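INTERNAL AUDIT FORM
Audit reference: QA-55
Scope: verify that the stored structure record matches its stored sequence.
Auditor: D.O.
Record contents follow.
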Amino acid sequence: MDNYPSWAAQVIWYEIFPERFCRKNYENPISSLDILGTTPWNFSKDSAWEIHPWTSDWYRRQPYEKENSKSLKINILRRRYCGDLNGIISKLDYLSELGVNALYFTPMQYSPSLHRYDGTNFLHIDPFLGDNALEDLKIISQEDFLDFDNAAWTSADLLALEMIKKAHSLGMKVVFDGVFNHIGYNSKPFQDVMKNAQKSEFADWFLIDWEKSTKKNLVYQKFWGFVKEMPKLNYGCKKVKEYVFSTLKRWLKPIVSGTEFEGIDGWRIDHAIGVPLTFWKSANAYVKTLKPDALFLGELIEPLEVIKPYLDEKCFDSVMNYGFYFSLLQFFVAQNNSISALQFDKLLRSQLKLLNLSSNFLAMNLLGTHDTERFASYIVNRDLKKYSSFAEFFENSHIEDKKYNSRCPNDFERKIQKMAVVFEFSMVGSPMIYYGDELGMWGANDPDCRKPMIWPELSFEDEQILVGGRRTKKYDKIEVNQNIFDFYKRIINFRKSNIEVLSWGKFSTLYADKEKRVYIYERTLKKERIIFGFNRELEPCSIEISLGVKTVLKNVLNGTKLDTDNFGHVRLTLEPVSFTILSQCE
């Protein structure tokens, strides 16, 4: 795999949402002024606000939230729990012990929002993620915005470099989120345009209809056509391109006072479709000159035929694999609207066939992200809606949907979750864990998928309030699900123990039922062979498969052995809603 970051095919990803991962700075000076200029817009600087208690009941409004008489949804979007870099650093040992070895961080750039996808300055880490925010804010405000390559290194920036160094020392790669389709409403370029209109030195940074614009109403292109706080950048502007290239370089090859520090190992690019393909091709080429094995991963949620040119033209090494995710949901999760094993197999093969080989190996396979429902909650609500695209997830927020069940998943639903995790960890591409899934966290889609991490040393209030503010008689305890955690550790260790065959091995279907959800396949590489069998039906099944050669198989789960006949035939029995893993004995 020349000119490709082959390491990305052999990792186990872990996504961290910094605002909700871990908090260590309990003297954070953030105030209501610092969260203006983003959704929700209908608040003044004088509206009651405070840092939200980490361990509180998610759907219960705190006293300060009751004062403003706004809806629960509006208040949840306004909350800040203030996870920070020191909190992340303090948990790197936990992540190492869990077994993950690649960290993907959602944006950490300076921003007023909880998600930071409306960054006001790409070059700097949000001062409120550090431990000297007021001084950092002063430094940022006083520097020349357009002197990209000489931007100061704030204390938060340096703390991020410390985090990168420690992660590397523990054998973990680090990838940052690049949000370059747009910039934040509060950014200096956009505020300058708001003030000076066409006389602004940043006037050509944005896509503005000057004929329709007035002094009080600037008509500009926005992310997704309507997100006010995210004005789209104009890639016909040379300075915009220079700004993005400087950002890519700053964090891949950081140089502080003449000394080179350890940089990140790649970029995940948000909403890649919003920027011209030709730009991404040049950006990826530039990244490879800085660090030949750096990963350049695109968030491309469109149909495969739209994604294909971005990979064939080497704009990106691979993608966040939403196609994998939506196919998996239809097979493992959906009940009334499910697809058969044969249909599932065809979906998987169409993707593997359409994308180039290296992109398949480097794909980031997922069961959920900061933009989707928690996987466990999707199982609880598996027949509420039929999803097959990202847009449907985004549009259908469940925070006020009284049909949505936000309870803790039961044991049967956890069985389905485990099946899907095994599938994710067995397939071509690298598996990703969304923070907290390994601890059993649940929640509806954005913003409910962004609850604070349930660390075992913390004592959380029971969840007594459900979606829409309804009370429940049965309280859900918020605590670590030890059974799920142990399962994740076991499957992580299994993947790492068989990393060559599961990273590079051939994928072959052994049985795909035409009507039922019974699916058996193998991964093979040289003399290694691992067979995976899944029965998502509610009754047991017995299936004969042919391996073409007489051999002995070992059940990875219980250690028992299974002999084929002289022709390589063997019968597998699968209990309802179960899986099996068999390895070929040497």
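Auditor finding: record pair retrieved intact. DSSP finds 18 helices and 24 strands in the chain.
Action required: none
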